[in-house]
């Protein structure tokens, strides 16, 4: 069992074959709820997260998994897994609970949502991390955020140069 884990958090995508009325009900309940979510909203969230996926119905999921596989190749002493902010399983909490159950001593959560100002990366993920830290004081849990702007601009500029060299 790996002692060091990375949880790569992506946004998550709605599978294209989900029934429209279910998606509409979910979005309506999600936008209307204040405070604790209703039992129905939680039920729909679970149904959507657990919806069967294929590369055709949810191309985002294999895309994030490919990034995780590449990251795993660079972080060979770490176990790298995916989690999703919404619409797809596992959630950040579920991925963390799995890591903890498998003996993780250090967990770094990092997101593909690297732009400052986003509600998921700025507010929601830090709130999740704070709750998980409070419940798991024996695990060194860190959130790799915010990203270093020089590192982000270096990666993006490399991609610009790669695009024009093709």
Explain what the structure shows.
It is a single chain. The protein has one domain (4-13, 58-164): 3-Layer(aba) Sandwich (Rossmann fold), CATH 3.40.50. The protein is globular and about 45 Å long. The model has no long low-confidence stretch (mean pLDDT 96). The protein has helices at residues 20-32, 39-49, 60-74, 92-101, 119-135, 149-164, and strands at residues 4-10, 79-84, 106-111, 140-143. The protein has 166 residues and is α/β, with parallel strands linked by helices. Helix 1 (20-32) crosses helix 2 (39-49). A four-stranded parallel beta sheet has the order 2-1-3-4, sandwiched between helices.
Number of helices: 6
What is the number of strand segments?
4
Strand % is: 5-15%
Percent helix range:
40-55%
- Are there runs of 5+ residues with pLDDT below 50, and where? none
Main sheet attributes: strand count, strand direction, barrel closure: 4 strands, parallel
Shape: globular
A few lines on this structure:
This protein has 166 residues and is α/β, with parallel strands linked by helices.
Task: Write the SSE topology.
Layout (H helix, E strand, L loop, with lengths): L3 E7 L9 H13 L6 H11 L10 H15 L4 E6 L7 H10 L4 E6 L7 H17 L4 E4 L5 H16 L2
Parallel strand pairs: 1-2, 1-3, 3-4
Helix pairs in contact: 1-2
């Amino acid at each position: 069992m790996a002692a060091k884990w990375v949880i790569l958090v992506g946004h998550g995508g709605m599978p294209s074959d989900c029934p429209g009325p279910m998606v509409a009900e979910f979005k309506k309940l999600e936008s209307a709820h204040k405070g604790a979510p209703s039992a129905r909203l939680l039920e729909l969230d679970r149904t959507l997260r657990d919806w069967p996926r294929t590369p055709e119905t949810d191309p985002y999921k294999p895309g994030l998994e490919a990034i995780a596989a590449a990251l795993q190749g660079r972080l060979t002493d770490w176990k790298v897994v995916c989690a999703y902010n919404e619409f797809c399983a596992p959630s950040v909490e579920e991925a963390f609970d799995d890591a903890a159950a498998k003996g993780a001593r250090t967990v770094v959560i990092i997101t593909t949502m690297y732009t400052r100002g986003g509600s998921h990366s700025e507010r929601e993920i830090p709130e999740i991390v704070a709750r998980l830290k409070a419940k798991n004081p024996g695990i060194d849990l860190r959130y790799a955020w915010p990203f270093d702007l020089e590192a982000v601009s270096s990666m993006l500029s490399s991609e610009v140069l790669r695009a024009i060299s093709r």
